[in-house]
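Batch manifest, entry 17 of 40.
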Amino acid sequence: MEAGEVRIRKSFIDEAKTYPEKYAPPKIVSKSTVTPVVIAWKKDLSLGYTQNGGNTKSQLGELSVKLDRKTPFNEFTVKFDGVYSSSNRS
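Output type: structure tokens
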């Protein structure tokens, strides 16, 4: 089955614009250079020491350190906890 020949006048064809502006593809905007923001290190430090005397001498020490840094691309965290304890009966 053949539909036949279809003729279109040249005056109906607009070569400068083939569709209305609202349907036009978005214009490409050049990418600007983005400087990543680096947030300074956040630091937490905790230090404690306890000493008792009497019949039983005891010592207790505690240290806790946490470092944290975030950037637009990643996050870096370091954490350390340490405890020391001793006891002596006299």
